[in-house]
Amino acid sequence: MKKRLDNKWALVTGSARGIGQQVALGLAQLGCNVIVHGRKEGNTAETLALLSDTNVEVKSVFGELDSEEGVNQVISQTQAVTADVDILYNNAAISCPSTPIFEFSMATWKQLMQVNVLALAQLCNAFGPGMKARNWGRIINLSSGIADQPNLAPYSVSKAAVDKFTKDLAFEFKDTNVRVNCIDPGWIQTDLGGPDAWDTVESTLPGMMAPVIIADSGPNGEYFRAQDYKFFD
Could you list the active site residues? Predict the structure, then answer.
């Protein structure tokens, strides 16, 4: 993998563990400074320890994404670290218990849309304009290949919304060097994916870096699959 990200800053939401942790490690290996995010202060200790021997700057922020106020907390802490977020990796998401489709409460629908869609849009609102002004940036939104599971409808619908928002946002940046794409990590053995998932969390690298290292004129508004990239030339 030849593309370097030296002197860039990335915010990776939900990077205290799981796929987000792998994303943070992958970015650091490419020379990118990383802002690690966890829901609560101290949750990022494991990721920070894993990044401690890298030659990049590493900071941490915390805050729940289940409210506008919580997202603003993450934004303000990030802005205190750097005025310029070059890479926004919207990894954080939640799912829901398997439930007959007609029995989901409106509270469940609202919670998943808030964390998986509205928080993501709020973060893009915060950091996208700066990328446009500097004429460089990468926004990567975590998607999902989930299909034919009405028992997980709020989750799958939220991810469909992420995919559509990604395309709309990408068009906003079409004449710039900012690229906006989404990526499906695969069915991964995490707290969200469960123990029966097909792939280990480590298998998401190097694929999760694919939409980061594209050319400035590269894919925009596209759908990447991390498991398609077992290695890079």
Answer: 155
